[in-house]
Amino acid sequence: MSAATPPAAGRHGLSPARRARNLLMGGLILLSTLLVVAPLILIFLYLLREGFGAMFNLDFARAREGLGAVFSGANLDFFTKTPAPEGETGGGLANAILGSIQMLAMASVIGVLVGVAGGIFLAEYPRHPLMPTIRMVSDVLAGIPAIVMGLVAYGLIVLQFGFSGLAGAVALGFLMIPIVVRTTEEVLKLVPQTVREAGLALGLPKWLVTLRIVLPAAAGGIVTGVMLALARVAGEAAPLLFTAFGNSAINLDPTKPMSALPLEIYRGATSAYDENQRLAKAGALLLIILIFVTSLLARRASRRK
Amino acid sequence: MSEPTQTRPPRPAALSSASDRLFQGLILLLASVIVLVFVLSIFQLGRESWPALSRFGLGFFTERTWNPVEGVFGAAAMIAGTLVTSLVALAISVPLAVASALFVAEYAPKWLANPVGYLIELLAAVPSVVYGLWALFVIAPMLGQWQLTFFNPETHPERVELYTKCAALWAENQTTLQCFFVPSAGGGRGLALAIIILTVMILPYTASVARDVIRLVPQDQREAMYALGATKWEVISRAILPYARAGILGGVILALGRALGETLAVAMVIGDSQDILKSLWGNASTMASVIANQFGDAQEALHRSSVVTLGLTLFVLSVAVNFVARVIIARLTPKGIQ
């Protein structure tokens, strides 16, 4: 009988103990995977339920009276107004949204310039005597806790010039560097050596080969790396606590204190006021959607290769 | 020096070598900023923590009292808090993470493996503050409710008695092992909640490294064992896990590095008490949470310097931990396996 089904031949001779252990461990592995994935789904559902209504000022309590009642007070204040004074209702997080955009833009300048240069250096000059040092330091930087980077930026900038969006952006930029370095180096190494040799054989100097042939070939991957780095630091509040500091008004001046979405989420979630908690939940929903979309797009783009 | 380059066709050598050198110099200059950031960080943290370190010396790390009012600063309670939260969270998360990696790499069909892998990676993308918000609004009330039931005087008078006894001990800053597991009515916040949320936060780091190294295990290792009539679990436990062990260890240490420095989620839920750990369910603090909660308010130079010293300690600890993790992982990247 066992000869009739060659691939599963052994199965029929399995002792009950072995079969039971196999099933048990398989079950435990499935259960563990469910446990691992559950928090993500629970968090997302919680934020959808609590944040969506808060974001548009919907009144789900009146759901029984129909859609009109739910939407009766709906508005876009969340995106256009600043937080109401403590204890009052209404307002939004326009200050934090604008602050996050400004600081992320400034941080990308540091992260992209230094990170891409670092990646080029590691991939294109592997025999340079400084290469092992820069590789090691970049790896080490990746492990430094964000809050420690906040302390560093405080000492370097805030002590001299006071709290500012720029100081926060520097801290975030420093945090972006190792991520961009690593992804840039990896995609540059994927560009075939023959492409470089073809360029050099045409008589092009190495720098032109790097800038005009190698970099464009790897551009997609580099953009992916930058997006992942942005998604990573967009959610950081710890390094902003004592650099950007926060600002309840809209601020377009990078030398003044500035707010950011994660900062407002932190303040709101630890606040005793319902209204601040409401804004925090709506802010968390917005932040998490932005981050998920960014990282999914980035991963999809990198997977296509 | 007669190198093979002799035969290279002529090109405008002077021009290109000058521009090449300029470009290389520019790239090197920008790349050196990486080293500069690192050196500035050490310099900055070292300079600012010097007042506290010179005042308290190594006693800073063993002293239990952290009292800004009297100007006495010892970090033993925060170091203990950091180590306990990180190590316990690690112990819980590693089996879960490895199991989920096994599921993605060995059990799930492709149509399921990819989305599950995605979801686990998204877990790493959730910001710390969002974990903190969720823990504060969802998990903390549940734990608080559980403590109320646990201490219900009508159903469990003997537990309430034990709690009263422990509360007296805690008031004198004394700890016993028995009392460590007695809930201390704190509304759900505290050490246990910090451990729960840290466990979730570091899961994806171990899981993704474990998944990658499990996929590197050569297919013939599996086939050889299946051919001998092994069950799936026997293949996993005897062929796959031993082969991937060192790589998984690297992922575990990487997660430890994350756990040590994780700040806001922990700062929001751990209750911020600078007393030495009393109860698993009571308030505590970690080095990172104290930095987040106190640095902004630290007026006095010595207080501020002590907080920065916590930052320096964290810096050194995470650099060491990440270095070990990277060495282990680097030794296993494909060129080592082939």
TrEMBL record, chain A:
Keywords: Cell membrane, Membrane, Phosphate transport, Transmembrane, Transmembrane helix, Transport. Its main location: membrane. The keyword Cell membrane applies. The chain crosses the membrane at residues 23-48, 103-125, 137-157, 163-181, 213-234, 279-298. One of its GO terms (molecular function) is phosphate transmembrane transporter activity. It is found in: Cell membrane. GO terms for cellular component: plasma membrane. The keyword Transmembrane applies. GO terms for biological process: phosphate ion transmembrane transport. Residues 97-298 form the ABC transmembrane type-1 domain. PROSITE patterns: ABC_TM1. It is a multi-pass membrane protein. PANTHER family: PHOSPHATE TRANSPORT SYSTEM PERMEASE PROTEIN PSTA. Belongs to the binding-protein-dependent transport system permease family. CysTW subfamily. This is Phosphate transport system permease protein PstA. It comes from Deinococcus arcticus. The gene is pstA.
Automatic annotation (TrEMBL), chain B:
It is found in: Cell membrane. The chain crosses the membrane at residues 21-43, 71-104, 116-143, 191-214, 307-329. Keywords: Cell membrane, Membrane, Phosphate transport, Transmembrane, Transmembrane helix, Transport. It is a multi-pass membrane protein. NCBIfam families: phosphate_pstC. One of its GO terms (molecular function) is phosphate transmembrane transporter activity. This is Phosphate transport system permease protein. GO terms for biological process: phosphate ion transport. CDD domains: TM_PBP2. The lineage of its organism: Bacteria, Thermotogati, Deinococcota, Deinococci, Deinococcales. It comes from the Bacteria.
